[in-house]
Write a structure and sequence with these properties.
globular, 5-stranded mixed β-sheet, 7 helices, 22-stranded antiparallel β-barrel
C-alpha cells in the first residue's frame, strides 16, 4: 500500500482515495416506474406526492417510508429526469446531510453523510444495487474516492439512509447507505421507451445522449424480460494553457442492463446483468494562485503537462430468490462484480523536479502517475424472515463476501515537453516506480433483526450483527527510485460486533416520534511496509444517537420531518505521509452533531413547494496521535489533524428549496414547470497538519520550528436550477437550465507542491459546472 501523494483535492494521498449519494427529499413520485407518460404524471399528483406512497427497503423489507424509525430520503426516476442529472453531484443537494465531492469527472466521487468524511482510502458510505453490495470493503481499492457513480437510467429510485447501518448492511456503512433500486421486468403488459437529448455548457462544448428501454412479458403473469441501454456524453468546459487544448474534460458514460424475473406461486426468481462504463479524456480543473486562491490564467483554465485520462468499467451479475414457506420467507441474494479502474494524474509538479534537483539536468521534467484498480467480488446473503404485519416481525441471516483485488502504480519521468530523458537518464530514471499491491478481503457475518409491536402506537426495533474479516496483501516494488525494491506481505483479522435499538411511538396516524441508537464500523487492514507506520490499522468505530419526528398535516398536504443527532467516532483512520509516500494510522476521535429538516407543502393539487436543510457541526475532539518516522540524522513527527478542526467538506449549513407546478390543457397536453435553489455553506478541504523535526530519539529537542499547514477554505456557493416539460400521449419534451445565474465556486481544492522542494506551485481546483442547457425528448409505447 505504498502510495504516492497526488494533486488530488483534500485527501493527501491517492491511498486516501477510494465515493455516493443520491437524492432528494420529499419530492417527486415514482410515477414513471409504471411506464405512464411522464407528462401525464404532472396531472396526477393529488395522491402520488404523498410520502406515504413511497416504499423503501431500508430494513430489507418493503415498508412505507413514513413507518420506518430512521432518517431516509428517496428520489425517484421522475426527479432525476427533470433535472437532467448525469452523476451524483447533480442531485446530492436535495438530500439533507449528504455531501458529494466530484473531482472533475463522474466516477471520481467521494460521499459523506452527517459530517462523517472519509479521511482514509476506506469508504464511510456503503453502496448497494438492489440487494447486492458493490465497491470494495478494504483499503487498497480507493473506495472512498471511487464511489459508484451509477448513471441514473433504468433506476426506479435511490434510497439514502443516514446514520450507521452496520447491523443490516455491514462493513463501510459507518456513515450511511446509498442504495440504487433498479426497475424490475414486467410480467404483465409491454413497455418501450426511446429518448434522445442534447446538452451545452456555456463557454464550453456540447454533448448528446440516447437511451432505450423495453420490458416484455415472455410468459404472461409469470416471466418478464427487461433490457435497457443508455449513452450520455460529457460536455467539456475547461481549457489547458500548456498546450492550448480546449474543453479537455470531455467523455461519455455507457450503461446497459438485462434482467429476467420469474413470478411463481411460491417461488420468485430474478437474474440481472448490468454493465457501466465511464471514459473521460481529462478532468475539469482550474489552476489557482496558492496565496490568493484566484485563477492564475483566467476562468476555466488549467495547467496540465501530462494527460489525465480516467476510465471505470463495472460489470455486476446478481441472482435473487424469494421462497414463500407459508409461515415465512427464505431470501437469497447472490452477486458477482468486476470493477476495473484506470486513473492517471499529472505529477509534473510533484516529481518533475527530480530531473533538475536530484539528477542535475538543466531543467525540471514532466511526470505522470497511473493507478490501476482491478477487483473481483462475490457476495452471498441468506435471510429467513417472518411474514409482515404480525405482533413480532423477525429476520435472521448470514452474509459472506470475498474480494480479490490488485492495485498497480506506475510513475514516469520525461522531459518537460513529454519526450524521453536524454541517455543514459531515460534508461535509469525514466521509470520512477512500479508498484503492485495485490490483496484479498474476506468477511463472514451473521445478523438478526426484530420488530415488536408492543401496542397499536408503540413499536421497538432491535438489530445485532457479528462479523469477522480476514485480509492479506503484498507490497511489490519492482522498479524505480521512489520506494525500496522488494516484496513485503501483511495480514490482519478482526471480529466486530454492531447493534441498533429504535423505539417508535405514534402520537396519531400521521405523527410518529422515534429514537435510534446504532453502531457501525469501517474495516481496518494490513498496512504498508514503511518505517514508523504500524503493521495494521484498526477498524474505526462509531456510535450514533438520534431522535426524530415524521409528521403530516392539513389532510396530508404538509409533511414535516425533523431529526436531531449526535455521533461519536473513535479510532478514525487517517493518512500519514512523508516524502510523497504514505500509509494509514488510527488518529483519534471526532464528534458530529446536527439537525436535519425535510418538508413539503402541496399548496394546491398542482403546486408543490419543498424545503430541506441540515445544520452539521462535525469536529475533531483531540489532536490526532502523532506518527514518528525516523530518518537519517533526525526524527520526523507528524500530526494530521488538530483538536477542533472541522471535518473536510462538511458545511455547517446547507439547504435546498424546490417548487413545481403541474398543469393540463383542454386539448390533452400535460406538463410541469419547476426549479430548485441550492445553497451550501463554507467548507474546508482537509484538517490541519503539523510537522516537527527533532533529534533522533529525543522528541523534546527540535532542530527547526514546527511547520503548520492549515486547510484551505472554500466559500459558500449557490445555484438555481430550472426545468419544464410538456407532452401528450406517448411523447414528452423536457428542457432544463442548471446553474441559471452562472455562479462560480469550487467543489474541491488541493495544494500542489514539489516532493523535494516542498514549494507550492498552485492550488488545483475543481469548479462548479457553468450554466448548462439541456433538451430531452422521450417516446413511450
Amino acid at each position: 500500500m505504498t502510495q504516492f501523494q497526488s494533486a488530488r483535492p483534500w485527501y493527501r494521498t491517492h491511498l486516501s482515495l477510494s465515493i455516493a449519494g443520491a437524492l432528494a427529499c420529499c419530492s417527486a413520485s415514482a410515477l414513471a416506474q409504471d411506464g405512464t407518460n411522464a407528462a401525464n404524471a404532472g396531472a396526477q399528483r393529488t395522491d402520488a406526492q404523498q410520502l406515504d406512497t413511497v416504499v423503501v427497503t431500508a430494513n430489507k423489507r418493503e415498508e412505507n417510508v413514513r413507518e420506518v424509525g430512521a432518517s431516509i430520503s428517496v428520489i425517484g426516476e421522475r426527479q432525476l429526469e427533470n433535472t437532467g442529472a448525469v452523476s451524483l453531484s447533480d442531485y446530492a443537494a436535495y438530500i439533507p446531510g449528504l455531501q458529494v465531492q466530484n473531482d472533475g469527472t463522474p466516477g471520481l466521487t467521494r460521499v459523506s453523510l452527517r459530517g462523517i468524511s472519509a479521511l482514509s482510502s476506506g469508504a464511510t458510505v456503503a453502496t448497494y444495487i438492489d440487494d447486492v453490495p458493490v465497491g470494495s470493503s478494504g483499503i487498497y481499492q480507493g473506495a472512498s474516492a471511487l464511489m459508484l457513480d451509477l448513471m441514473p437510467y433504468d433506476i426506479s429510485r435511490v434510497e439514502v439512509l443516514r446514520g450507521p447501518q452496520g447491523t443490516l448492511y455491514g462493513a463501510g456503512a459507518i456513515g450511511g447507505l446509498l442504495k440504487y433500486v433498479t426497475r424490475a421486468p414486467e410480467v404483465v403488459g409491454e413497455e418501450t421507451r426511446v429518448g434522445f437529448g442534447l446538452r451545452s455548457v456555456q463557454g464550453g462544448g456540447q454533448a448528446w445522449n440516447a437511451r432505450l428501454g423495453a420490458s416484455l412479458p415472455l410468459k404472461d403473469e409469470r416471466l418478464g424480460l427487461r433490457m435497457s441501454f443508455a449513452r450520455n456524453g460529457l460536455a467539456g468546459f475547461t481549457d489547458n494553457v500548456i498546450d492550448g487544448r480546449k474543453d479537455i474534460n470531455t467523455g461519455d458514460q455507457i450503461g446497459a442492463r438485462t434482467a429476467l424475473a420469474w413470478d411463481g406461486d411460491a417461488f420468485d426468481l430474478g437474474l440481472s446483468v448490468l454493465h457501466q462504463r465511464i471514459r473521460s479524456d481529462d478532468r475539469a480543473g482550474v489552476a489557482l494562485d496558492p496565496e490568493t486562491l484566484t485563477p492564475l490564467f483566467g476562468e476555466q483554465k488549467d495547467t496540465v503537462w501530462q494527460p489525465r485520462p480516467f476510465s471505470k468499467d463495472l460489470t455486476l451479475v446478481s441472482l435473487s430468490m424469494d421462497w414463500d414457506l407459508g409461515w415465512g420467507n427464505l431470501v437469497s441474494a447472490t452477486g458477482w462484480s468486476q470493477t476495473k479502474t484506470m486513473d492517471q494524474i499529472d505529477a509534473t509538479t510533484q516529481f518533475g523536479e527530480v530531473a533538475d534537483l536530484l539528477l542535475g539536468l538543466p531543467a525540471p521534467g514532466s511526470s505522470s502517475l497511473r493507478y490501476g484498480y482491478d477487483m473481483d467480488k462475490i457476495t452471498q446473503e441468506f435471510r429467513l424472515l417472518s411474514k409482515d404485519g404480525g405482533t413480532f416481525e423477525w429476520m435472521v441471516g448470514g452474509f459472506y463476501t470475498k474480494e480479490d483485488s490488485k492495485q498497480d502504480q506506475v510513475a514516469n519521468l520525461a522531459e518537460r515537453d513529454g519526450t524521453p530523458l536524454p541517455p543514459p537518464y531515460d534508461a535509469q530514471f525514466g521509470t520512477l516506480a512500479v508498484i503492485g499491491l495485490p490483496s484479498t478481503y474476506k468477511e463472514y457475518a451473521v445478523f438478526a433483526n426484530g420488530s415488536w409491536r408492543i401496542s397499536d402506537r408503540f413499536k421497538l426495533d432491535l438489530g445485532v450483527r457479528q462479523a469477522r474479516n480476514d485480509q492479506w496483501y503484498s507490497q511489490r516494488v519492482s522498479e524505480g527510485i521512489l520506494a525500496p525494491i522488494g516484496v513485503t506481505t501483511g495480514t490482519s483479522s478482526e471480529n466486530v460486533f454492531t447493534w441498533s435499538v429504535s423505539p417508535q411511538f405514534k402520537l396519531s396516524d400521521d405523527i410518529m416520534l422515534y429514537a435510534r441508537v446504532a453502531t457501525g464500523y469501517q474495516p481496518g487492514g494490513p498496512n504498508v511496509a514503511m518505517v514508523g507506520i504500524p503493521p495494521q490499522v484498526d477498524s474505526s468505530m462509531l456510535d450514533s444517537y438520534e431522535v426524530g419526528i415524521k409528521s403530516q398535516f392539513a389532510d396530508r398536504r404538509v409533511t414535516f420531518d425533523l431529526s436531531v443527532f449526535r455521533i461519536d467516532w473513535d479510532d478514525i483512520q487517517v493518512s500519514s505521509s512523508f516524502n510523497g509516500i504514505s500509509g494509514l494510522v488510527n488518529g483519534g476521535q471526532a464528534t458530529s452533531e446536527g439537525v436535519e429538516l425535510s418538508s413539503q407543502f402541496s399548496v394546491t393539487d398542482a403546486l408543490t413547494l419543498g424545503l430541506n436543510g441540515a445544520y452539521t457541526n462535525s469536529r475533531l475532539k483531540n489532536d490526532f496521535d502523532p506518527t514518528v518516522i525516523p530518518q537519517d540524522g533526525f526524527d520526523f513527527i507528524q500530526w494530521t489533524g488538530l483538536a477542533d478542526d472541522r471535518m473536510p467538506y462538511s458545511p455547517r449549513l446547507s439547504w435546498t428549496a424546490t417548487a413545481e407546478y403541474a398543469f393540463s390543457t383542454a386539448n390533452g397536453y400535460n406538463g410541469q414547470i419547476g426549479g430548485a435553489f441550492r445553497w451550501t455553506g463554507e467548507r474546508f478541504n482537509g484538517t490541519t497538519e503539523r510537522q516537527r523535526f527533532t533529534a533522533p530519539g529525543d522528541p523534546d529537542t527540535q532542530v527547526m520550528p514546527d511547520v503548520i499547514t492549515s486547510p484551505l477554505k472554500l466559500g459558500s456557493n449557490h445555484s438555481l436550477d430550472l426545468y419544464a416539460g410538456i407532452g401528450r400521449g406517448s411523447w414528452e419534451l423536457r428542457a432544463y437550465v442548471n446553474n441559471v445565474t452562472g455562479e462560480d465556486g469550487w467543489l474541491t481544492l488541493a495544494r500542489v507542491a514539489g516532493a523535494l522542494s516542498r514549494v507550492n506551485s498552485h492550488v488545483a481546483a475543481v469548479p462548479v459546472q457553468p450554466r448548462t442547457y439541456g433538451m430531452e425528448l422521450d417516446f413511450r409505447f
